[in-house]
Design a protein that fits this description.
The chain is mainly beta. The protein contains 1 helix and 32 strands. It has a 16-stranded parallel sheet that branches. It is elongated and about 65 Å long.
């Protein structure tokens, strides 16, 4: 009986061990499943010498490796912790814009992250912001497929520069409410300079967008945003476009079913410190006049205000509103050489 009891006890202990092992394995699988997207292996030191690590504790971190710090796959710097400052001492460089790599990824769990003069190039996405209250100062993205992608709320960009990012320089998506950008801009992209994609409540001030293949600034199903003191020059289709058509205004149809128009936006330009803020196509580099429209508003995009904007020299029109008599859009105190409809169609239509 004593032996039998011992055997029963050993069987119970074995079952308990197996159960514990299964629980541990399940916990590991769950942890892996819940790990941040594209999480990099290893914890970053405060002096980061190479790509491929995760910042998982608050604090100040410096990119201190060789210049450039090269990444061959995945995410160069993955940030999962809140209250982090990442400072640049070296450029981070990816394996190419056609890859699914990310230069710096601020994960949804990471709030109050500050990027200071970080330079990211040759990634699928140079910088991706998913956490809340991210702040950037002097960040530069170049030669990425998408320079900066913002999904997190309350992001603040100051002095941000996108240079020759391919599909889009700065993309602000619908979840990025209360987005603010002051200073900087996007240029020389084969695609779009700055795209407000379904977002509302964004404020952009003192920005430029020039030399981009399609639009300098694209309000794509984006409503109730404010853009002031902007300079949009020498873009392929339009300096600023409010509409759903990736090819620009076509005069035929409103936004398709399921896609919202861009309504209730305010665009304000003025003379600022002696510098005229134009919606035109004058190129700093070569004076090539190839921007079709300064500002173009697609059919069905309504309740927008355009105030104190100057434009001249665009190939087709300095300003275009495809809504009959401008619909409910209001154009006040503007100066355009050419426009459609022509000035004085109605008091608030292209005046």
């Amino acid at each position: 009986m004593i032996i039998g009891g011992a055997m029963q006890m050993m069987t119970k202990l074995a079952r308990k061990a197996v159960s514990s092992a299964m629980a541990a394995a399940f916990a590991m699988m769950l942890a892996l499943a819940l790990a941040p997207t594209g999480a990099a292996a290893g914890t970053c030191a405060n002096q980061i010498k190479s790509c491929g690590c995760t910042i998982n504790s608050p604090g100040m971190y410096l990119l201190a490796g060789p210049n450039p710090m090269k990444s061959t796959a995945g995410t160069c710097i993955d940030i999962t912790a809140s209250n982090v400052t990442l400072q640049s001492g070296s450029t981070i460089q990816g394996p190419g814009s056609t890859t699914s790599t990310v230069g710096v990824h601020i994960e949804p769990s990471a709030n109050n992250v500050f990027l200071n003069y970080v330079v990211a190039r040759d990634f699928g996405k140079g910088i991706r912001i998913d956490g809340y209250y991210a702040t950037t100062v002097g960040v530069i993205t170049t030669l990425n497929n998408k320079g900066l992608v913002v999904n997190g709320k309350n992001a603040l960009l100051t002095g941000h520069s996108s240079e020759a990012d391919e599909a889009v320089g700065i993309e602000v998506n619908a979840t990025a409410t209360n987005f603010v950008m002051v200073g900087g801009g996007a240029g020389d992209s084969p695609g779009v300079g700055i795209e407000l994609n379904g977002v509302s409540g964004a404020v952009l001030s003192t920005i430029g967008a020039g030399g981009n293949g399609t639009f300098g600034i694209w309000l794509n199903s984006a409503s109730d945003n404010v853009i002031s003191y902007f300079d949009v020059e020498d873009n392929g289709i339009a300096g600023v476009y409010l509409g759903c058509n990736a090819a620009g205004p076509n005069g035929k149809a409103s936004c398709p079913a399921g896609q919202s128009p861009s309504n209730g936006n305010s665009l304000i330009g003025a003379t600022y410190m002696g510098f005229n803020i134009y919606a035109n196509n004058y190129s700093y580099a070569d004076n090539i006049l190839d921007q079709s429209y300064g500002i173009a508003v697609g059919l069905g995009n309504l309740d927008n205000d355009f105030i104190m904007i100057s434009g001249t020299g665009n190939v087709v029109d300095d300003a275009l509103d495809e809504n009959p008599n401008c619909g409910s859009n209001r154009w006040l105190l503007n100066t355009f050489t050419t426009s459609s409809p022509p000035p004085n169609t109605a008091y608030t239509c292209l005046n």
